[in-house]
């Protein structure tokens, strides 16, 4: 009787419109679906020194590299510190990272991120000394310098302290000036490749069709699920830059894979509209085991010989909480309908994740299942 009641409630929840509906995919601009071959940024990294800290810098005994870089900087400024013993607490060694955007020109400015690598407590209020930034080829492409905006705050007293955020990392907006440009000539290209961020044959075919309908002449051809080649010579464009400007705002409806993503820590479940479930029966319940130790001390009578003995006492019990009875899901039911029915029954998110895992393991969930 209980199983029938739960089954009726399950399908009643579906029939009452508790189904979470999914809107059909909206057309997306091509520029939001693809990466243009060669139009990319480059990562930069440098090693520098932050000064002006309020006693929160590196302990030089634990970070000898800080003393070394400080000595090198002072010597380049004409100050000889060889053999000197100095232990300042207002300096810290840091890594400086940035991204050189495509088509960046000499003299432009980019943001940088500064992160401590020693035992500094905070970079709040510090100033980064001139730091060259290198790319993967070893060449210097930018130079960074400026005041750091730390991402947190720390307060320390004699008997304790409190830290909020990450005070050992921060940013310098427009803190690096570009000194070298990348060797990429877009204007000389005769063909361009569009790389799909999520490869899919259907989406690539739709991009090809949209471009050819807009510019004509068979300018685009799909090479594989992740690449569409663009022939510049077949387009009415003065340059490759003009050609990209003509096609990047064309609208295409992307095709997505059926996918379910669950986050066990937060109990979040995200699913696509094309997820389907085959005929399957579901039953779920919770089993709770409790073991409690209540030892009892037994003492001898007054003026009697003997020793105090501790007698162990254990109370063990098993409690089975109400769960979902044997509910049958018909073939072709969407996952949104199943989740809506489980919500109607008040199933907890983590229990729902376990149910979805079991349905996937049974081969009845036809989608990619991603657990984070």
UniProtKB/TrEMBL annotation:
Annotated keywords: Bacterial flagellum, Cell projection, Cilium, Flagellum, Periplasm, Signal
GO BP annotations listed: bacterial-type flagellum-dependent cell motility
Pfam families membership: FlgI (PF02119)
Compartmental location: Bacterial flagellum basal body
UniProt entry tagged with the keyword Signal: yes
InterPro entries xrefs: Flag_FlgI (IPR001782)
A GO term for molecular function: structural molecule activity
CC annotations in GO: bacterial-type flagellum basal body, distal rod, P ring; outer membrane-bounded periplasmic space
Signal peptide bounds: 1-25
Family, per entry: Belongs to the FlgI family.
Quaternary structure note: The basal body constitutes a major portion of the flagellar organelle and consists of four rings (L,P,S, and M) mounted on a central rod.
Described function: Assembles around the rod to form the L-ring and probably protects the motor/basal body from shearing forces during rotation.
Protein name per its UniProtKB record: Flagellar P-ring protein
Organism expressing this protein natively: Roseovarius azorensis
